[in-house]
Write a structure and sequence with these properties.
elongated, 13 helices, five-stranded parallel β-sheet, 2 domains, single chain, Rossmann fold, alpha/beta, binds cytidine-5'-monophosphate, 399 residues, eight-stranded mixed β-sheet
Amino acid sequence: MDSLTGKKIVLGVTGGIAAYKAVEIASRLRKAGAEVHVVMTREATEFVTELTFREITRQPVSVDMWAKVTNFNVEHIALATLADYVLIAPATANIIAKTAAGIADDMLTTTVLATKAPLIMAPAMNTNMYENPVTQKNIAELKSRGVQIIEPASGALACGTSGKGRLPEPAEIVQYVMDFAAGEQRLKGRKIIVTAGGTVEPLDPVRYLGNRSTGKMGYAIAAEAAKQGAEVLLVSGPSNLPVPTGVQTVRIQTAREMQAAVQAAYAEADAVIMSAAVADYRPKTVAAEKIKKSEDELVLHLERNPDILYGLGQTKAQQILVGFAAETCNVEEYAKKKLVKKNLDFIVANDVSASDAGFAVDNNRVQLYFRDGRTERYPLMAKADLAKVILEKLAALLP
Ligand code: C5P
């Protein structure tokens, strides 16, 4: 599918000089088959008139929350409900900040807060405003909530400077929306098991062996897979993250519990993505009472946990298997060995010795090694974006 036939799109236009480009965006969305409802901020009306959008879209244009009521629908709720997608282009630093903070003080922000439709934003502003840490923090926050951010282009800006912050060409923005709409249901009807977080291996009633995994990567994958239409089973070790919408979650503690939960759903699954940091060892005995300290050394005897993914690889039928390799050195060599040994379709490898990527942070920098020998290297990116990459690669391998 490469058209937007029958889709209802709320196009939010905010007050930047690039607002004039939104006219072409509205026109192209319509030509792609969408019904376009424009919501402008007051500031946007200083740059382009409501009339222009009304003529282009053949739909009423909303600006004012308190305009005379013409029907009984509460307008921002009606728009929020009818939207298949909400696209904000251009998105100023202001609307980005308001959306990140949950502020609803005009028609557009109220619609955004009230909608359950996917939100796509195309930031456009002066480079310094874009690069300002608070804007970057807001963008990261929005991404982590699943908002699609269209990277601004670099080039000459209206303020006379040059740099990152230009609104991409309308054709590119509309293409992004079309790709998103096509990708959204790419995994429809597929059953995908995702494991996340670390396992916890008890030592006595109050102590355990664990690791630093927070589950961020796995939760991002689970959320994205559900968004793309998959039936997702998330098998998660302890994690403080909220359960993603539309995802069935099983909480486990130990590696053996994780193995049992994965095995129970494996036969029916189309794919397993093992992003969990599974403990390789567990205490040989779990003390019934709290272990008391003494003056002596404490020696713990550990025994091997099952390698869950290896086991899945041994009995693999139709399932696509994706593993992770968190390494501190020789990343390529170790990852490729695991790919073969565990009978995987591809492995996501990362160097966890880097402080800006890997465990417990929002970003990751990975290489993908495929069964057919291909290697793909990616720059530092948000885990939410990496989830999309992983699922795109997975979708391409599904029969
Ligand atoms: O061998 P290593 O632990 O580095 O392999 C990592 C991959 O194997 C990850 O995908 C991890 O989830 C999985 N794994 C597993 N069972 C284990 C250890 C790791 O499934 N006991």
